[in-house]
Design a protein that fits this description.
- By secondary structure, the protein is of the alpha/beta class.
- It has 6 helices and 14 strands.
- The protein has helices at 10-20, 23-39, 168-188, 267-275, 287-293, 310-315; strands spanning 48-59, 62-72, 77-84, 92-96, 110-121, 129-140, 145-146, 148-152, 200-209, 212-216, 238-241, 243-249, 276-283, 300-301.
- Strands 1, 2, 3, 5, 6, 7, 9, 12, 13 and 14 form a 10-stranded mixed sheet that branches. Strands 8-4-10-11 form a 4-stranded mixed sheet, covered by helices on one side.
- α2 crosses α5 (287-293).
């Protein structure tokens, strides 16, 4: 066997390129996922199994790839992970909960995601599979649910080329949404004939990141001066957490074809049912624990109405 050759200066330049492109973090996150699945002591404790890496999908003609695709053990529930290595100078992400997102939103925050269900075969031509895309509620995530993410500076030296910016959270969440909707569109399109009737297939967007996550425990509106638009002076309470659940509105341009869409007057309902989807955001040190414990608990279709007369909706606008 030939001895390994070392090219002068390759190590330094290769490390820089691999680190900066996020490839190293991506590969280590995969290993953490496999370790989390292997840590389970019995079959019933196993959660997320690695399904594929860099899986190609398409949304409305736009090509992308799912960095890491996990499948919940013995269920058709998929976690579409976007890996985000943060610039060390901007690797602290603050998350806040907003007191108002939409009118008559449920009191407790829950997982919200989309599922594809095969209803059955058509009885007439073209005899294809009939599908329905259903928005679903899952388990309560009230203790870690957030609505706003803010990138903060650290005291660490940044990447040499300054890569990374204050839109990193929005960009990573958008890419995760794009990945999940690409998987939904695949099920609704080319993979439709293989869908088993009555089985829900869900796609949950997620972000794994090297950034530290801080959960702020304040009501911004209550400590803001109206005239200046600035927060009052003083400390902001918060704590570092291994993950949060970002309740993130999905841009219409990256929603899967066939996604639920209504044209009624209840805009608040449309916001909840059609647009807000949950994106778990997990820091690097929390990946193994998250994958070893997270169960979305999808169990209820998001209702098409609030359960009150149309006149009441009008009276509140």
């Amino acid at each position: 066997m030939a001895a390994t050759e070392f090219i002068p200066d390759l190590g330094k330049s290769a490390r820089a390129a691999i680190n900066l492109g996020g490839y190293a973090f991506h590969q280590r996150a995969i290993r953490e996922g496999e370790a989390a699945f292997g840590d389970a002591k019995c079959e019933s404790d196993k959660r997320w199994r690695l399904e594929a890496v860099e899986f190609p999908v398409q949304v409305r003609g736009r090509d992308t790839r799912i960095d890491i695709l996990f499948r919940y053990n013995m269920r058709a529930e998929y976690l579409c992970v976007e890996c985000k290595r943060a610039n060390p100078a901007l690797a602290r992400w603050l998350f806040l909960r907003m007191p108002m997102v939409s009118r008559d939103r449920p009191e407790f925050e829950r997982i919200q995601t989309d599922c594809v269900q095969a209803i059955g075969q058509r009885k007439v031509e073209p005899y294809d599979t009939m599908l329905d895309l259903v928005p679903m509620y899952g388990r309560t995530v009230d203790d870690r649910a957030v609505h706003l993410g803010i990138v903060m500076k650290t005291n660490d030296k940044g990447d040499d080329n300054g890569r990374g910016n204050r839109d990193d959270i929005e960009g990573a969440a958008t890419q995760a949404h794009l990945a999940a909707n690409g998987l939904l569109e695949r099920w609704l399109g080319e993979a439709a004939s293989s869908m088993q009737a009555g089985i829900f297939h869900s796609a949950i967007p997620a972000v794994f990141t090297t950034a530290k996550l801080v959960l702020g425990k304040i009501d911004v509106s209550s400590i803001t001066d109206l005239e200046s638009g600035k927060l009052d002076a003083g400390e902001i309470p918060g704590e570092e957490v291994p993950w949060v659940f970002l309740q993130s509105p999905v841009s219409l341009g990256i929603r899967a074809r066939g996604a639920p869409q209504s044209y009624g007057s209840d805009i608040a309902l449309a916001m909840d049912r059609e647009m807000i989807r949950t994106v778990p955001i997990v820091t690097a040190s929390g990946i193994r624990e998250f994958l070893g414990t997270f169960d979305p608990g999808l169990n209820e279709a998001i209702p098409e109405s609030r359960g009150y007369p149309f006149s009441r909706a009008l009276s509140r606008q």
